[in-house]
Predict the 3D structure of the following.
Amino acid sequence: MYRYKLTIEYDGTPFFGWQRQKNLPTIQQFIEEAVQPLTKDLVTIQGAGRTDTGVHALGQVAHFDTDKHLKPFRIQECINAHLANQSISILNVEEVPLTFNARFNAIERRYIYKIINRRAKLSLDNNRAWKITKNIDINLMNSAAQLLKGKHDFSTFRAAGCQSLSPIKTLNNITIERVDDLILIKLFAKSFLYHQVRNIVGSLIKVGTGEWSIDYFHNIFKMCDRKLGAMTAPSHGLYFWNVIYDPKEL
Amino acid sequence: MYRYKLTIEYDGTPFFGWQRQKNLPTIQQFIEEAVQPLTKDLVTIQGAGRTDTGVHALGQVAHFDTDKHLKPFRIQECINAHLANQSISILNVEEVPLTFNARFNAIERRYIYKIINRRAKLSLDNNRAWKITKNIDINLMNSAAQLLKGKHDFSTFRAAGCQSLSPIKTLNNITIERVDDLILIKLFAKSFLYHQVRNIVGSLIKVGTGEWSIDYFHNIFKMCDRKLGAMTAPSHGLYFWNVIYDPKEL
């Protein structure tokens, strides 16, 4: 048995998310079908994270097993050729030890949330960013974001249906940058609760627009009640950026 | 009579360029039709530059005249509402003196050419960048680009059908930056010959991939013969970035 690690970019707009679903086009399904001409058997691709409908990826990671010993370059070329008309690209393929697991060995996942702060509708960034008309002060957002760093109960930002055993997570870092009307929010953690990134962004924006004070944000965070959090930020502003693994494990 | 200046963003992919054509969708035509509910008469929009099929704009500038005195904000909202389903956005509208001319008063036009240097096909940047597989050394490109700065005969980079009276142009500046596999080439001039930017990029890439020496590039530039230049870089990597006007004229 051989194991291969894939690094994957996609525009999530046309897909019903990462995870295979009956009768709906998903990214996992397209990649599984695209690799079949090489593996002959239908393989299962295990992703590092299950992105929702409309969420994009710059560096999703996945792995699959096959009893065929294949050249990584051939796998990459085969999948990309089969997905020529799909907005999915395999950026890299490596053979990895059977101990490597894209999901369970990840030591850090990184997400970017993209906001365009202007009144005019988006042309080039349509479906690629959240357009917010109200003036946003990122200094206020940054002050609020500092409160989230470290190990906390993130129930306020946890969606119903989250399968995590615990709402306790450690946010390694969060940064907010602005260049003209482009705002990028970057989040770093070993793992996230369901919708945690988009729920954090939704509430931080309330602070940035002045609707919420930093104290109010701090209070609703400590209350650990999702009903107190703001709306979930839209999926199309979210990018699964990349995944870090222990170099010893690859 | 009143004159209004528009600043316009577009994804050029679905259009047959800027300029109005019979029976083909163009950006000029869509904007002219979108402003009609306010002006009542069909106005003519004069753009600072005529972009080709597939070329994008971050800040195209145009003006039009009307005998209705309108609030700039209302013009912006009206056009954007009518173009809700088109990848065209009006970023700004200003009332300007009748001496202002978007095309003839420009003192500098700025273009960005976007390249992704990797093997895998593009997902998020499909139709938004030129994908080049061969390794590119931007230091070599930068050395060649220095030769283009200033006032020269640019016939080597001038397309057939160019309507400019002279092939002599002044390139104010050209810069080349790289971040990971993204390469941005920025060009600054009062005006450009037809396809000049894309022809310069096509030939600079020959230098960056090592196919041409800097001396060879210098020679073909001095020979002033388009047949010696490399292929025209594809339109979908080109962005009309912005236009500078003399503050006294605006």
User: Anything to note?
Assistant: Residues 27-39 of chain B form the longest helix (13 residues).
